[in-house]
Design a protein that fits this description.
295 residues, mainly alpha, 15 helices, globular
């Protein structure tokens, strides 16, 4: 099976699990549920969910054990995109070829939809009864740290501050993206380990984190390159928005060729790390896919 087809099957499976999280909605709250699902189920590659499922599988866990954690990382990701698109942040009108959440539901409901998705993520992690209580507690703690001010949110703050500075350095950019993008990729990998019942610092934990760090950085570099040379019809959003918003990106320091060379180097390092373990062919293919993607 071509790897991209495998990824699509995982995305479909993830969407089915996400739909189940909204099976008992109260009718008078239909607006907020609709706004949440508008962004949560708007497509996307489900890379973070795939990492949860795959790491759980290679460590002997089941799809059912991983499902709640996979849904949770996608809820956090969807919330972050809703808030990123707001006028006070990136002020984007389109996401994945569709109007952004606040363009459909208004800013107030969009903010609340993001808030609801974030809190629902923790409810979903805590409710994973197929995973021992100790691992659920560790999963809540891990997700809170890597999604919060010590992770993704902290990276967003540094990113905003960088826009206001006259000059920033490459190490500052790397720090931003290690938090803003890399933290949730790392969370996905480690939640997969926890879903399989593996204790923190047990087998594969350190190398899993290093693999996540490197594919996360490569992912962001390719994102920055695509904003310059990508096809807006394929991307589903306007290209050149980073430059329009004076955002600090890898293109602030590298040519396209240099940036892609760095992404290839990071991908090779990630593959070398994960290839030390058995049954990791899919993780090798994922690293290659993220490097070569066009959207």
């Amino acid at each position: 099976m071509i790897f991209e087809e495998q990824l699509k099957l995982c995305a479909k499976k993830t969407d089915e699990y996400l739909e189940r999280c909204y099976s008992d909605n109260e009718s008078d709250l239909s607006l907020i549920y609709e706004a949440e699902k508008y962004s949560l189920l708007s497509g996307g590659k489900r890379i973070r969910a795939y990492l949860v499922f795959e790491f759980c599988k290679i460590l002997g866990g089941t799809e059912e054990q991983a499902a709640n954690f996979a849904c949770a990382v996608e809820m956090v990701h969807a919330y972050s995109l809703i808030h990123d698109d707001l006028p006070c942040m990136d002020n984007d009108d389109y996401r994945r070829g569709k109007l952004t959440n606040h363009k459909v539901y208004g800013e107030a409901i969009a903010v609340l939809a993001g808030d609801a998705l974030l809190t629902k993520a923790f409810e979903t992690v805590a409710g994973n009864e197929l995973v021992p209580c100790e691992h659920r507690v560790n999963a809540v703690r891990l997700l809170a740290r890597l999604a919060g001010d010590g992770g993704m949110v902290g990276g967003q703050v540094l990113d905003i501050n960088a826009e206001e500075k006259s000059e920033s350095t490459l190490p500052e950019l790397q720090r931003i993206h290690s938090l803003k993008t890399g933290a949730m990729i790392k969370a996905s990998v480690l939640l997969g380990c926890l879903a399989a019942g593996k204790d923190i610092n047990e087998y594969l934990w350190h190398d899993a984190a290093k693999y996540a760090e490197k594919i996360g950085m490569a992912f962001q570099i390719v994102d920055d390159v695509l904003d310059v040379i990508g096809d807006s019809a394929i991307l589903g959003k306007k290209i050149g928005s980073d430059a329009d918003n004076r955002k600090l990106t890898y293109m602030s320091f590298y040519t396209v060729e240099e940036a892609l060379g760095l992404a290839r180097k990071l991908t090779d390092e990630a593959i070398e790390i994960i290839s030390r373990y058995s049954n990791t062919e899919n993780l090798v293919n994922l690293a290659k896919y993220l490097l070569e993607r066009k959207k």
